[in-house]
Specification:
single chain, 416 residues, 6-stranded antiparallel beta sheet, 5-stranded antiparallel beta sheet
Amino acid sequence: MTRLVTKALLVSGCIAAAAASCYFASVQSFLVSSPQLIGVLSPSEPRLLVRMADGLFALDQQRLIEAQQKGEPLEIEGTGARQEALALRALRQQALLPAALRQLGLARDRGRVDPASRPYLELVQRLSRRERVAQLWLAQDALKANRLDRAVGHLDTVFRTSPEAYDLIWPILLQAGEVPGLGTALARRSDMGAAWVGSYLRFLLDRNAGLGTLAEATGAIRRPTRLYYGSDIAAETVLQLMLDGQARRANTLFNQARRSGLLSAPTQSYAGESATALPWTLFGSAEAASEWRGTGRSSRKLDVLVEAGNRGAVARQVRFEQPGSYRWNASLDSPMLPPGARIEITFDCPGGAPPMVVWSARAGADEAQPVITNRAFSIGRDCPAQTFAIELIGAKDAGDATASFARLRFEKATGR
């Protein structure tokens, strides 16, 4: 636990990036070129003094980040004393100036999330909730103490007061997605109406990061309508768990999301969709592809195509069926399958036996009348999640193979 929490504390990068976004880059260049002028600035300009302290801080942090990236020792000459002196001068001119108190706390912190800085930054929060760098420091302080609800609360304040901070802060919080228990805290905050939680989870999915937090959060959601992108996040997290070899956890999350309403059960079952399955995922390439056509229950069809001499999977579905015997009830509309071409549905139990073909169609004596093979198959107790794929195999030295699935239903197998 300690190792994972420590890993998530991107202290230097977090505060430096936030500070650099808030203040003018020209301050840094001014300090680099004329540091001797700091001591002769007019003491009647507290905000300018704070701005200069910000520049010193950002410059110091940038040096730390560069040293980390190069793998060099972090033994550089800091500017904490000058930063603190500037903040104190500003406070003498304007007591309880939030920005000056924030810089005073950061000057004494030196990138360590030092508890000695906490009183200053907590006072900043009471004076102004818009000091985002202070809020980020307090969030990291709470993460370090494993007080996850408090950490998420500080992040909530940042996003409510500075919605423009989304793009800046998402990359900073990337590794925070690995902290155990964070997903549950995020789910509670989402249930309270925090719209940013969905955006953060979407960001983790897009970066293929924080799978544990994604599963934790989507499984703990109680008010699904308040989670932006909720249904897509839940479905994609289930798929990511499958790809990661966590079939049982995928099964558990799927059922949790169904019960909470985050994944709603389909109202129609014309394409093998049911309360125990995710919708088909369609994909393809230049050689093989698929797409839905039509919208009604009786008119919707799945068109598939493969070029001559090529092969490829064009659709995949994950199901969570109970043990038993099943079959695919599928038929083709206007197929054109030259000799040697085939369409197959394969069944795969992750971690089990190799995939097996459970339904196939190949060219018959008449290209428009394919020969269909439909076999029953068993799902055992050791197979909590099942993957089905539609694959097309084109014939060599022949034309393209095309067809439409007029019926594609998943059924319990009878004794026939």
